[in-house]
Structure formats: C-alpha cells, structure tokens
Amino acid sequence: MLKLHKPICFFDLETTGLNVGKDRIVEISVLKVFPNGNKESKTLRVNPEILISREAQAVHGISNEDVADEPTFKEIAPQIWEMMKDSDLAGYNSNRFDVPLLAEEFMRSDFEFDIDRHRLVDVQVIFYKKEPRDLTSAFKYYCDKDLKDAHSAAADVEATYEVLKAQIEKYEDLENDIRFLSEFTTQKQTADLAGFIVYNDKGDEIFSFGKHKGKKVTEVFDTDPGYYGWIQNADFPLYTKKVLTKIKLQNGKLF
C-alpha cells in the first residue's frame, strides 16, 4: 500500500488535441486513493464545446457525436474539484500535459487552481528513468498483465496506479513516500505548468522562450514593460499568465 501524507488522485484525460492552451477535455477519469487504502473513482465524458481533432479521435476513439449531449467541464468542475482540492496528483505523463491542461479547464471554470497546494507524481518519469517504454509495456513489465482498452481513461488510470505500486516494490532506492516520488518525478523546475517560466540556478524566475529567453522576468518587466501586456493578450496558458501577474504584484509593478 502506498504511504500517503494525504489523499492522492490518479487521473487521466482524453482531449480534443495536444495544445494545452487551446484544447479541451472530452473524458476525465479520477481514482482517489486515501491514506487508509480506500479508493473512490469517477469517470465522466465532457462536451468540449470545440471540435475533436481527427488525430485525437484516432487515439481515444471518442467522436464529436459521442460527447454532443454530455455536460461541459464547467458543469462537472465542482465535483472534480471536490475530489482533488485536498489531494496530491498523479498520472502518466501528467506533469507535462494532464496537469497543465486540467489547470486551464479549472481556471476557465472560475476555480483558483494553485499547483503549490499539490505534490505531483508522474509515473511516466519513474518508468522512463528506469525502463523507457509506454504505459502498455509498463503494465506488462511491472504487473505482468496485458492492458485492455488502452487509451480508455478508466483503464489507463487504473493501470497507472498498479504500475506505481509495482515500481515501489521493484526498486529498493524508490521510497514509498509521496514527497520523495514527487521530487523524483519532477524533471524540470518550472514556475508555471507549461514551462514558459523556469528557474535559474539562483532560484530566480526566467523566461524559457522568445526574445527574452534566459532573462529574469523582473528585469524584462523593467526594461520592456509592454512584454507583460503582450503575453496577457496572446495565446498563452491561463496559468502562465497568472504566474506572471503574481510576479508583477510581488514586485509592485502591476500598475
């Protein structure tokens, strides 16, 4: 059994595409595991209010017609929030995709998602550091089982939970502790979720893209004050914009 400091939600998203800022959820599955080992789960289809790309349909098999009569994410957000608000978060490739995209959906639905309230465990990172393969291979390798219904959110999230438990049993240096696992699976320290703002070796926020790549955010705001406004009006993730606003407020430069 996982040693938990508080509940942890394993979750998986099926989406309209791979753009964190633009794409939407079409299916979400959450498996909440409590410190005493109890579990509760929920799987919901979602009307994304935009078209599902052909590439995404080819992966998860969910069509626009399948979700036309389903509730929007804003309608289901309260029940998903209730499951996750007090929990750490885990998934497969979740740090790079699922968590950032979920944060966008919550923020569009007026929920104040703050990553600092959650520890993140990305099972894919453990797998890639130890045995670089995909989830189907991981399930076979660690659990000696065939993953049926791969790319179904419910099947993927249950498999992810089973793989993490098997990884902890297999590797002696892998501590059964969510704090340790969160640190182990955090590959790159970022201030936002999408990786547009990272930290330098002194712990300062710096831009990781564009004409100011490698420069401190606070220095850019001093020398190029219009850059903040450009980002706020451009097609960047909401969480990235939130982080930049927070930095501006902390330095007394918002107005």
Proportion in helices: 40-55%
Number of strands: 7
> Which structural class is indicated by helix and strand composition?
alpha/beta
Radius of gyration: 19 Å
- Biggest sheet, strands in spatial order? 3-2-1-4-5
> Count of helical segments?
11
Form type: globular
Biggest sheet details? 5 strands, mixed
Strand coverage percent: 5-15%
Name of the CATH architecture of the largest domain: 2-Layer Sandwich
CATH topology of the largest domain: Nucleotidyltransferase, domain 5
How confident overall, as mean pLDDT? 93
Low-confidence stretches: none
Quickly count the domains: 2
Order of helices and strands: EEEHHHEHEHHHHEEHHH
CATH fourth-tier homologous superfamily of the largest domain: Ribonuclease H-like superfamily/Ribonuclease H
Spatial gap, N to C terminus: 51 Å
CATH class of the largest domain: Alpha Beta
Describe what you observe in this structure.
This protein is α/β, with parallel strands linked by helices and 255 residues long. The protein contains eleven helices and seven strands. It folds into two domains: 8-185, Ribonuclease H-like superfamily/Ribonuclease H (Nucleotidyltransferase, domain 5), CATH 3.30.420; 197-250, no CATH class. A five-stranded mixed sheet has the order 3-2-1-4-5, with helices on both faces. It has a two-stranded antiparallel sheet with strand order 6-7. Helix 6 packs across helix 7 (153-170). It is globular, with a radius of gyration of 19 Å. The mean pLDDT is 93.
